[in-house]
Amino acid sequence: MNREKWRTAQQLHTPSDTGVLACGSEMDLGAMKKISSMFSTLQEKLHRSKRSASDPSAPPAPRPEPAPDRSHTGQLFFEYLLVVSLRKRKSEEAYEPHITYQFPKREVMGRRQREEEEKCMKAAHLFCFPEGINWAPLTEYSSETFSFVLTEVDGSRRNGYCRRLLPGGSGARVPEAYCIISRVACFGLFSKIFDEVEKRRLISKAMIYPFMQSLREAPLPAPGHTVRISSFIPEAGTEVISLTRPADSWLEHVDFRSLFRFLTDEELLMVFSAAVMERRIIFLSEELSTLSQVLHAVAALLYPFVWQHTFISIVPTVLIDVCAAPTPFLLGVQKNMLDLLTDHSDLMIVDLSAGAQTRFISRIGDEESLLPAKLRAGLLTSLSARTPHANELNRLVSEAFLTVFIKTVGHFSEHIKSRRFQKKSFLKAVDHRAHLSFVKPFIQTQMFDLFVQEEEKQPNPNGFFQQKVSEHRERKRRERMKGRWVRGVVV
């Protein structure tokens, strides 16, 4: 049951320790060497970039107050706010991103926090401006918000939220990015926080600090609850900002509307089928917000299972070699880098562009047949009843896909004996023989393996998934009883 897991850290490490998100799978020696070589090349690139850059100059800010004691909050809204700007390279017609502002400031951090910051910050700019050096001054630029996941070697995760915008002024200028690093996964919540940051940025960068300080001191609300933060703005007075977390905590980072803007129901089922079987999938779009929203939504369709392999919602140019990794991945790549993807074998490439001639540039070809026919038909029926309202849509879509796992593997807990999963008895107990073609390969995946390992160690009979399984069984029991009663009346 135990698989050897290989994890490399994604996205926010020092240049000497930079990698990509959680690569968890069995690898042969050749695959390990290929991954190692790829990351060594990346490290060299980052080292060269670091040596060529001069120290960034931070803008003036009010004198920092001591960092608040997090014990009274349980969890902070965020860990860091970064401002990432584009700086023109000397003697080159190219720009490179660098951090020009950081909150909290390093001088108010303890030693341990500074060490953590060193590991966490030095590559953040790569994901705020994944296009690399290809920038030129602009007079117009539509601000956009996107996110990425940061995974440490121990498997713990941070979320990076980014809003890019054109700073105030006249004439041509380059965009800047505001990046929040947080343990909290809630895209909508941080989008509202960015609205407040952007409003204050129009007045002065110095106005951002008091708001972020108030936010950092506020208790993070539980799912479904609201916290109110007071913040002063010159000429407007004190404003009270209400921040509410969605009630469904496992969906608070997800907006399924993004999927249906770009994919038909049939196309979505093909993507889901490939993800369930842990295949290599790349999404293409020019819009960073589209890539991050779609990738997080696809990963959420797998609930209660968790994608265990490489997941990078926006692949920076310097990391494009990760697309050649032999292990499963979910990657978001800007479409102008399509020519860099030279090998399309055993790869699903999904073009999310509005004017795409074909949605699938490449795929294996069996995706329509991976799901059993009745489950596939049931999913399409459920999805056809969706509404445009975000909360209702999230509930309907999540429950529709959850039903696939309830009907196929929901009986897994009955086959954990003495903290060991009994695979043979589990397979014999599958309700429908037609489901076996799906169940057999699925239980070989890393996501199912680790899910069951957690249940072996610490069963969770009251978890959300188990509650839904119990509800499904109760409905089936009532249906059987009703069927028997009807047959008795007819006789």
Write the layout of secondary structure elements.
Elements: H1 29-52, E1 80-88, E2 95-103, H2 111-121, H3 124-128, E3 144-151, E4 157-165, E5 176-182, H4 187-201, H5 208-217, E6 226-233, E7 237-244, H6 257-262, H7 265-276, E8 280-285, H8 288-300, E9 310-312, E10 329-334, E11 348-351, E12 360-362, H9 373-384, H10 390-409, E13 416-417, E14 420-421, H11 423-428, H12 436-442, H13 446-457, H14 464-490
Task: Describe what this molecule looks like in 3D.
With 491 residues, the protein is an alpha+beta fold. The protein contains 14 helices and 14 strands. It has helices spanning 29-52, 111-121, 124-128, 187-201, 208-217, 257-262, 265-276, 288-300, 373-384, 390-409, 423-428, 436-442, 446-457, 464-490, and strands spanning 80-88, 95-103, 144-151, 157-165, 176-182, 226-233, 237-244, 280-285, 310-312, 329-334, 348-351, 360-362, 416-417, 420-421. The termini are far apart.
Quick structural gist:
The chain has 491 residues and is an alpha+beta fold. The chain has 14 helices and 14 strands.
What would the keywords be for this entry?
single chain; 491 residues; alpha+beta; 14 strands; 37% helix; globular; disordered N terminus
